[in-house]
Structure formats: structure tokens, C-alpha cells
Amino acid sequence: MGVDLSGVLRPVRQGNAFEETVERLLTVIKLGLIAPGERFPPERELAAQLGISRLTLREAIRELAAAGYVESRRGRFGGTFITYTRPAPSVGDLRRLAQEDGDKLTDALTFRYAVETGAADMLAQQVAAGNGAAAQPAAALATAGCDPPAPAASRREVLLARLAEVNGASPQEYRRLDTLFHLSIAELTGSSLLAASCAEARMRLNDLLNAIPVLRRNITHSAAQHAAIVDAILAGDPERARIAVAEHLAGTGALLRGFLG
């Protein structure tokens, strides 16, 4: 199943086009929105999404290749492929992050709580309303910076597919597929601004999450919480969806505080 990158690969500011292009591409790579060994969308499509010239895009890709994040291949099946793999967590990483970023943890968790509970609430409202925001005129959605939400059947398919992926993930793939599950909720609302905010919230916690071990008991507990989130959204129950997300994020916050405390 393809990943909607529009929330992350939004247009950059021309004054810092190169730097912001590198930042956008690194966000996609580090969040695992494209898996190692897979490739970015075609150059023409990427440049259009970012609102930059293909020359600027090529310069950014060249620097990322030199740093070991991507590899460019020519030919019919060529493109820009992800070569970055997340390093295994270590005690040294935890100590360093606790010293450098421990004071930022509460702020990052608060930001994530606000945007992710809000996204689940909004998506559940749209499900309850039937067509949701899709019932609004397309021009109004464009003015608000939103895309029409996916049809109800498509929403259900995407959520259940993402749920199955993360709940069936290996420990090595768990963080990446957990990210895709959570971001899909914001993406399905049709709000590119909300999707971008959820991606930013996840990115702020990314290094911290990647530095702690994946615990089998926590995966089992999270699987039940993920299912509760999806059940509430598909039932069109905003309050229950918000509570389910809040409970899940509280568990993640407790683990981070425990390991970094």
C-alpha cells in the first residue's frame, strides 16, 4: 500500500530551498515513510510536490547520497533508493539523549498528544457524518488547505491495513510501521496541515523512540490499544477515539520517561 507523503513533502520556502529540501527528504527517511531499499517518487513528482526546480532536488539528493542516506540508480528500474537503516539502540545513546533532550521530552509529548488526539477525533467525526468533509465544495477544501478525505470504504481499508501491518511487525520493523499507522489517521482526515503537524510531532520524538528497546510486552499492549483506536474511529465515536489515543500515548510517554529518567 502506498504512503501519502503530501503532509511531509509540502512546498519549501524559496529563500532556503536547498536546506529545506534536505530537511523534508530526511524526515521521510528517518520516519521510515519509505522503507530501506525502496525508492522515492519520480524526480518530476518530487520537485512538483516541494515546489522546487529539478536542479535543486538533484543537489539535495547528491548530498544525501554522499552522507549515506540514499543511492541513485540509472536505467529503467532506477531512481533514488533509501539506504539508511536505523541503528540499534544502545545505552550510550540513551545517556546522551537523556542529557541533551530530556528537558524537551514533556514539550514534545504535549505536542504529540494535542495533534494526534485531535486527528483521531476529527476522523471519527467525519466517519460519523458519512461523507464528512467530502460533502463540502472542493473549492472550499482547497481554500482551507485540505484535500477531500478518503471515501468511507477506503478509510476503513487503509486503517485496517495499517493496523494489520503494525500489529504483525517484527521488532526491527515495529517503529517504522507504528509511525505509518499513526500518521495514516491524520492523512485520512484530508488535512495536509494536520498530517504535517503529526509528522513533525513524531519527528521530535523520533531519536528518543529509536533509542529505547522494543519490548515484546509493550508491543502486545500497544496492539490492543491500536485496535481500540481503530474501532472507535470506524464507529464514528470522537470521544472514544480521543480517549483511546490519549491512553496509548500515555503508555509511550511512561516508557520514554522511564528509560530517560
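the 2nd protein, sequnce then structure:
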Amino acid sequence: MNLIKKYYTPSNTPLGEGGGEGGRAKKSVSVLSPATVANVVCGFDILGFALNNPNDEVTISLSDEVGVQIINQDDFDLPTDPEKNVSGAALLAMLEECPDVKGFTLISKKHIKPGSGIGSSAASAAGPVVAANYLLGNRFSKEDLVRFAMFGEKVASGVKHADNIAPAIYGGVTLIRSIFPLDIIAIDAPELYVTVVHPQIEVRTADARKILKQNILLKDAIKQWGNIAGLVAGLIKHDYELIGRSLEDVIIEPVRSILIPGFNEVKSKCKEAGALGGGISGSGPSIFMLSKDEATAKAVEKEMSNIYERIGLDYQTHLTTINQEGVKLVSS
């Protein structure tokens, strides 16, 4: 009980119902862990938002065995060694601060394809730690959970980053002002429709980072800072025109877009169809576009489909909205 008192933070606990001190002990819990869009064009490594669709399915149980046992129920052939598995690494980090817990058993069914650019690794890291936290009476804060999940992101990309992890856990749109120490700000964004196209190629996050320039011109940095500030202000003010003007990246997108067939055409045609703007989701190859209404989002989806049908490249689309909850409890 002392451990729960030490870590439990009532004002900042995901999946609070049924957990907490005095709550009925749970032995197993299932959650949906959402896809996410990171960077949001100009906000490289600092901005992200969660999607209502697609989601991974995650079930966590307390175990009498030491460590983390992983059962994969999909066809992605991910490692079951917890130190080499995104979910496993996140849970091992949590166990380091849970001397009263022997281990966890994880059952994972992924629907977010690895390498898709919509936060597959973040979903694998965020879902398990949120579910495990529920089993432990919500003793850890959301910020703690992001910290644990970042160990999973390091397995995936070699770098601890939180622009997918934070929105997956907090929900909505998040700004990561700082990684060390963690400083996460939730942004009260307007209702927006999100259209995503995933060309069926893989762009590994680690590879997409390797091609980035290590030095940039001051004039480009200044322009980028203006766009980031404008985008955050536009989201907070619910100013759609300012959001659209600020969705511009002069540093990362010009380099990474060469990895994505049809990128420039998709972006221009979707804006002609009425999208506020958009760009590469995470490290790609998925491309996202934001719209004010569903009709526009559907028109954007049609443009995306037409382009990849003509190119002759297999693709998948998602028409969804911003997920305001993050990881969602489905059963316990």
C-alpha cells in the first residue's frame, strides 16, 4: 500500500475508473492503443495527435513469472524477447519501479502496420504501460507512463522520442516542450477530420532519421519556428486559416518526401479538394491531411485513392477524427 501512496496521482491518471487505492484488484485488462500522427508537418519530434482509427488490441495480465512474457496474435513476426520488443522494453522499464510486482503477460494483436508512419511502435509501447498501470491501481502518472513507453521507442528507432507516445497516452494534440526533463502540454484543438493514406511500402524510422541534415540555415530555422508557433496558436484559437498557413515544413519534409512516391501530387491535389493542409505522418510513408468537415475529408480520400490507383501502388486509407482519450479501456 505504501508503494501505491508513493506513486498514485489522482489528478493525472488514465483509465481511472475501477483503479486507485481501495479499488477492486484486477488480474487482466484489455485496451485499444491508438495510431498517432507525429511531427504534424513543422513540429518535428515535438507535436503529435491521436487517431480514433486504427487501434492495436492489447491484453495485460499480472504474472507469477519474473519479467515479461509476450504472445503475438498477428502476422508481423515481432520479437518475443522483451528486451528486443517495443512493448517488452516499456514494461521492463515499468517493472524497475515496481518491486512488489513479479511480471506481466502481454497478448498483442496489432492492426497498425509496423513502418507505416502512424505510430505503430508508439501504440505497442503506450497500450501495455497504460493497461499495466490500471492493474496496479493507477499508481503512475501519465508523465511516468510516457517515460516508460519511451524505452520502447528507443528499441524501435534508437532514439527516445515522445511525439507519438504522448498523444497516445494523453489523447488529443500534445506538445512536447522538453524530453529531459519531460514537459508535455495538452493543446485544446478544434474538431478536425483526418484523412490518411498509407502507400504499401515501408519506411523505417531509423532509416528516415539517417538521411536528415545535421545542419540547417538560420533563415530556414526562423521560418520553421514561425510555422510551429503559428500552428500551435491556430489550434488553440481554433483558427482554421492560421492552421492551414502554418502547415509548412522547410526542413524535414523536403528531404523525406523523396522516399514517398506521389507525395507532392497528393499534397497539392488534397489542398485543391479543400484540405487545410498536411504532410508526412511521422517518418512516412503515410500522408495525412486535415479537414474542417467530413465531406471535405471524403473528397480528400478520393483524391488520394485516384493518385495511387494511377501510379499502380497498393495503398490503404483511413478517414477518422482526433482521438481525445488516448488508450481506451475495453474490458477488465
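The first helix runs from residue 2 to 7. The CA atoms of residues 33 and 127 lie 5 Å apart.
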